[in-house]
Write a structure and sequence with these properties.
The chain is an all-alpha fold. 74% of the residues lie in helices and 0% in strands. The termini are far apart.
């Protein structure tokens, strides 16, 4: 139900309280076509807690955060170009979205820097889609219905993850019980000096 996701993101763009709820209750992956936009919502709230909380001013402030990241991406690409043009002397400039930065961001509860590198796409396409959505899609669902749909989808996703985790633990237990006699026999043979892995 893309209309529900669009309705909620439109509200989050206009209102900080809605954005904080999106950030607290959902992951960017819950909004498949707007993951980078959701990451920027979280980054904006983290960096600018005192920015305007509602209306057009809020949207412009969020766009400012996106523009800052466009600058970060551009500076990185420029430094890579300079490094290559200079014969690749010295260490290669580190990408702001490299593995180390992504791990650190995860630990600190920050958005995935890999999503933040899509700043120009957010600025040129996603912001417009969220700010002025297609009425034929957008008007098919109310705000209350949108929150209800997303909350239900989140519960289903958590239940599926729980089932998958339970199945993985069951499989591990079966694997251990299957190998237990072999390992016990090897341990006994090791004690008597006759260890062999020939099964």
């Amino acid at each position: 139900m893309d209309a529900a996701r669009l309705r909620v993101l439109n509200l989050a763009l206009q209102d900080r309280v809605a954005a904080q709820r999106v950030i607290a209750e959902f992951a960017p992956t819950d909004f498949p076509d707007f993951q980078a936009f959701v990451a920027f919502l979280a980054e904006h709230e983290r960096l600018h807690p005192n920015a305007p909380g509602q209306g057009v001013e809020r949207g412009l402030a969020l766009l400012g955060t996106v523009a800052d990241h466009i600058g970060v991406v551009r500076d990185y690409h420029r430094s890579i170009s300079d490094w290559r043009a200079g014969g690749r002397r010295g260490p290669e400039p580190a990408a702001p979205w490299g593995p180390a930065e992504c791990t650190l961001a995860r630990r600190e509860g920050r958005p995935d820097p890999g999503l933040l590198r899509h700043a120009s796409m957010v600025a040129t396409r996603q912001m417009a889609q969220v700010a002025a959505p297609d009425p034929e899609v957008f008007d098919t669902v109310t705000v209350a219905q949108a929150w209800q749909f997303l909350t239900r989808a989140q519960r289903v996703k958590r239940a599926d993850a729980h089932v998958a985790g339970t199945e993985a633990r069951r499989q591990t237990t079966q694997d251990r019980s299957r190998w237990a006699p072999v390992l016990a026999a090897h341990a006994t043979a090791s004690e008597s000096g006759e260890a062999s892995w020939q099964l």
